Amino acid sequence: MNSTNSISMANESTASTNKETVGSDSASTSYNNYPEMSAEQEFFLYELETTDSGSIGLVLRAIYDTGDVHKFARALERRIAHYDKSILKVSTYYTRDIKGVTETIDSNVQEMSAELLKKSTEIVRYRKLQRNANTAIDQITMCLPILENYAKLQSLMKQKKYYQALKVLEELEHTYLSHIQKYRFTQSLAKSMAPIRDQIREKSYSELTDFLESLQKISRKIGEEVLKKTAEHHQIFKPDKNKDLKQKKSSSTPRDTEFEISKDGSLMKKSPRNSENSLEIHQRKEESLSAQDKIDFAPIHRCCQIFNVLGDKERFEVYYRNQRREQSMVVNRPPVKLQESIDTYVRYLQEIVGFFVVEDNIMQMQPGLVTAAHKDQLWEMALQQITHTMNSHFGNCLDVGMMLKMKKVILLFALTMKSYGYNINSLYTLLQNFRDQYNEILMREYCAQFETALQNDNYTPIMVRNEEEYKAVMRDFPYYRRGQDQEEFPRRFPFSQFVPAVYKQAKSYLLGCLSFMEDLQLTQTEIDDTVRQYANVLLARWSGSLKGFVTNKSRSLIQLIQITINMAYLERSCEFLEKYITELTNRGEGGGSSGHLVTLKGQIFQEARSEIEQLIEQALKDKVDAFLELANYDWELPQASGVASDYITDIINFLTTTFTSFTNLPSVLARSVCMQTCKHLAERLHEMLLSPEAKSINNGALEQFSLDVMQCEMFTAQCPIEGFENATLTMTFAHLRQLLDLVMNADWSTYLAERSQENRKYMRVRATDASTLLEKMIEFEKKTSGFFGRGGDRKKLYDTILQQLKRLGN
């Protein structure tokens, strides 16, 4: 306060002093004129001092106009000098006061300056602090996202959200860290973040492995559901009607009192529907889900995204394909106990279907991960393994029912894979190979049934006693004979029970063949022709079985005859089987078989029939031989008995009965057998007559032998087999009759005279036979000594005849 008051007082005194000084100066300026200065110069100086700057130029011009510039210049210099002195005086006057004030002011200014300096220093310091703080805030603001993202990165890694963590890591590295690389902590962050990529890569591989393992566990269930849907769509496995009926009955009961059918067929109360537990509801919900709904494909998406960001997309794709290839090899490898049941095969194929269904879904969602080439390669591997497995494990199957079920399973598998775009041609080839194997096994079964029917047949024509039995036979075999419906019971069929039984077997076999060929991508004509081919093979094998059966020496003649009749009707049945095949293959009655490359060969039994015909002939010959072996001719019989021998009578009775049973045989066969039998009988009688064992023969024996031949001739004239021309059958004994007539009548002259004629009387008699029989008669006469003892003329005559006969025989 004291300094302030002194400064104000000094200012007031200085002001008063200045007023006094100014007054004296102005007085001196106005009145103190120099002697050399004129009034005009005084006026110019006054004008210069008082006028404004704009009028100076006028004053100066006026000065130059007067011409006295030097005087004015001296006057101006003196005026300036005068003013300098005045200023010096005033300055000296005021200097004394100003020094004191100045010292006071200086001291105050110094004090205030020191304080101001102190405050300004503080302000500078605070401003620096503020600037540093703002800089720090700005830098921290830049670092906060890094720290937040790093914390987020650590959290995402703990939560196993690797794709999000990788995106955060990418953002940290490319967006934030580049701006704050000058800080040391960023180096630590970068160092800690460096292994995170490798961790994410390893975790992703691990997640993929877990995902693939989960696929392996669920693939069979997926395959089961896909196969089930395919079966329902194509109606391959038809539902059990009885089961459906039970379900309808059980579902039609009132809701308040529900029942269910137990295993033994009885009804038992069922708990109310509202009491279903949550587990059953959950199971039904799971069944309603599709295969894709049951699989969480998120891991595969994440892995693809992660490796795409990591830049290892190709490496990941190679890894995935290698893993799936290894899994495919495991899935394709058949289980050890594959042949235990059909369910084992089904589970094996379900695994494969599930694997490829999943692979197809992954290809649709990630086309770059699963390519068509990769999928086809896996399918080719699987197809080769499946074909090898089926051929090795199932190729030796001998169960027809098992093969038919397996065919449906393989067909279901093929149709399922076809719906997903896979090539299944080799599966159809496999099925067609199994078709041949199946038909071979089926054929063996029916060949065995055929042989059983052969063994068990009674070889007697079927006799029916009433209409019901008659219709039963007609249902089994389409036999028709004119007027058979009007015949009275009992009615007789020409064939035995063997024929309808075998015909039913043939129809059943054709059904079995056709059941395997369904849905094998064969045209209708191929199916028809294939069925006919197999039918021809079956008939050929049956023919071979017949041939083997009849060659057994224990077969009786009755059996052989009935088998021949049966074979004739089996040949006729081929026409009915043709129609039956046409009906089976839905070609309609108008389709016929003319358009087929293959037809049923009715003549396929020709070889067996020829064999049986020969056996029948041989059996009749053997029977004739058996009767003839019982014959005991007395070739020196004194006199004939007047009737045929007993053995001849027995033979004739046997042949009559046998040939009567030939009614149902083919007429050509019956006539052929009859003719050959009669020829054989004639030959055997001829052999007996000329046998070397009989050394001599008399007329009585010849007469008895002639009666026997006459009985045979009477039989041939009255043979029960129709169709022979007049005397055709009788001619079989003509050579015997002519020989006997020649010798008994001693008509040697006629024989020798007509020897060169075509229509000779004894044209069937050979000279050797005649000479042999004549020698036997001569031998008998020699023994009795009565023939040549009365004279030598007759002896010479017979010697001459005998010589001529021998000469003719040579």
TrEMBL record:
The record places domain Exocyst complex subunit EXOC6/Sec15 C-terminal at: 426-776
| One term under GO cellular component | exocyst
Q: Which Pfam families match?
A: EXOC6_Sec15_N (PF20651), Sec15_C (PF04091)
- Origin superkingdom: Eukaryota
Q: Coiled-coil regions in this chain?
A: none
Recorded protein name is Exocyst complex component
Organismal lineage: Eukaryota, Metazoa, Ecdysozoa, Nematoda, Chromadorea
* Family indicated by similarity: Belongs to the SEC15 family.
Per UniProt, the keywords (alphabetical) are: Coiled coil, Exocytosis, Transport
Q: Where is this region: Disordered?
A: 1-32, 237-285
Q: Does the keyword Transport apply?
A: yes
The record ties this protein, via PANTHER family, to: EXOCYST COMPLEX COMPONENT 6, SEC15
Compositional bias, Basic and acidic residues, is annotated for 237-247, 255-267
Function text: Component of the exocyst complex involved in the docking of exocytic vesicles with fusion sites on the plasma membrane.
The answer to keyword Transport applying to this record is yes
Q: Which residues form the Exocyst complex component EXOC6/Sec15 N-terminal domain?
A: 86-225
